[in-house]
Structures are given as structure tokens and as C-alpha cells.
Specification:
Number of strands: 10
Radius of gyration: 18 Å
Strand order of the largest sheet: 6-7-8-3-9-10
Structural class: alpha/beta
Strand content: 25-35%
Helix content: 25-40%
Order of helices and strands: EEEHEEHEHHHEHEHEEHH
Distance between the termini: 36 Å
Number of helices: 9
Shape: globular
């Protein structure tokens, strides 16, 4: 299989604190990888280093065999990397349509056309509407984001990430804080994503993580502790002790 993301001996220090401590990981094309571990294990910090929010202290990250360790965040997006955040990151005072149209235009040369409105760009309008329809929000396209429930904001954020046309998508706790019905809806949306999109996901809900993943990486204290199939990880006694609790 083709390696899409290659992380080699990645380290991230914050002063005297080593939040990520020599993590190595290979993500294959089309794979669904879950990243789990207790709070403070370094999962989100690793995401930030891989996607460009933070700069790694040492080690390397490659995307499609290209070294992106010190590449700017927006350049990684252009190369095919998308992500969502642990806390929703949308414009609350804009409409759903305006949010997604900004995401589309912001990733290509059309953002430099100052004398044109989005309404005069039919391709953008069509793509934005299709993106909202894909996550079940088309009927609310002209509503302000601040009127959405938390789960609906999660749906919008997923639409924003998908409309950058990522080849690999990083999801940071996509089901956190959702009601039962919202949880089920987001799970189904993630499950239905095409295998053309490689998926890496942090998730504390084990039903979600183990239900969606082909492989699971368990982190603890900034390091990779165990990696394997969902069944292998779930039956590992060390994982049960550290993450699931004694059984």
C-alpha cells in the first residue's frame, strides 16, 4: 500500500515539557486510523504538528513523500491535507453558505478576484450547496451559524473540511459533546466518506473509534504505546490498564 502520511521520531517541546516524545507512524492510502489515549497523552499536539498549527521541535512529517515538517499550514491544505478541531472553528455571525463559500474560495486563485462576489461565481455556489447537502444542512444555508446546535456546527465543520477536497482528513474528536442523535448522525457521515479520503481521527468514544478504524494507535505520555487492529488493541492488557481501566 502507498504511504500517505509518514511521521518519523516527531518531538514537540513546550519549555521543559515534552508533549510529543519521538512518535513515528505511517498512514496508508484509504486507511481509517484512530488515535486514542488518556487526556494529556499528546494526541492533539501531535495533530497540530502534523497539520501545521504547531512547528515540531524535531523529527519529520512527510505527505505523499514530500517533507512538510516546516511547511505553512495553508500550504499543507493546498497539498491535500484537511482537518477539523476539538472546538468548533466557524464564523458564528455569517451564514452557513457564507462559511462554506469562504472555505472554497480561500483555497484557490479566485480569492484574489476583488471585484467579483460569490453570487457571480456559479461553480462556487454549486459546490457550496452540494457541500451543505452532503452533511444534511442545505435547507439551513441562509441561516446564521450562531443559530445552529453544537452538533450542527460539527456537521458544518465537516463540510468545510471536505470542501477543501482533502486527500487526507484529520478529525479531532468529531463526536465530542454531541447528543445521542447527533452522535449517530456524525458517525454515519464519517462512515460514509469515500476511501479516496484517508482518515485519521482522535476520538474518546470507544464505540466510534473502534467502530470506524482499520487500525488504532494508542498514545500515553507523549509516546506510542500500542498499535494494531481494533480487536488487538481492545484485548491488550496494557491498554486496558492505562485507558479502559482494570477489567
Amino acid at each position: 500500500m502507498t504511504i500517505i502520511v509518514a511521521i518519523d521520531n516527531l518531538v514537540k517541546n513546550f519549555g521543559g515539557l515534552r508533549a510529543v516524545d519521538g512518535v513515528s507512524m505511517n498512514i496508508e492510502a484509504g486507511e481509517r486510523r484512530a488515535l486514542i489515549g488518556p487526556n494529556g497523552a499528546g494526541k492533539t499536539t501531535l495533530f497540530h504538528c502534523v497539520t501545521g498549527t504547531y512547528q515540531a521541535s524535531s523529527g519529520s512529517v512527510k505527505l505523499f513523500e514530500e517533507d512538510i515538517t516546516y511547511t505553512a499550514e495553508h500550504q499543507r491544505t493546498k497539498l491535500g491535507m484537511g482537518r477539523t478541531f476539538q472546538i468548533t472553528n466557524v464564523f458564528a455571525e455569517l451564514t452557513l453558505f457564507e462559511n462554506i463559500a469562504l472555505a472554497i474560495v480561500g483555497t484557490d486563485s479566485r480569492k484574489w478576484i476583488w471585484n467579483r462576489t460569490v453570487e457571480s461565481m456559479p461553480a462556487v455556489r454549486e459546490q457550496a450547496v452540494a457541500g451543505l447537502e452532503a452533511v444534511g444542512l442545505r435547507e439551513r444555508a441562509n441561516e446564521l451559524v450562531r443559530l445552529l446546535s453544537y452538533g450542527e456546527r460539527r456537521q458544518l465543520e465537516l463540510a468545510l473540511a471536505l470542501n477543501t477536497q482533502p486527500k487526507v482528513l484529520f478529525l479531532d474528536e468529531p463526536c465530542a459533546g454531541l447528543s445521542t442523535s447527533e452522535h449517530h448522525r456524525i458517525f454515519k457521515m464519517i462512515q460514509s466518506l469515500p476511501r479516496e479520503i484517508t482518515l485519521v481521527m482522535i476520538e474518546h468514544d470507544m464505540d466510534v473509534a473502534l467502530g470506524l478504524a482499520d487500525r488504532v494507535t494508542v498514545m500515553n505520555r507523549g509516546r506510542v504505546m500500542v498499535e494494531g487492529t481494533p480487536a488487538e488493541v481492545q484485548s491488550n492488557p496494557e491498554v486496558r490498564d492505562v485507558y479502559f481501566g482494570h477489567v
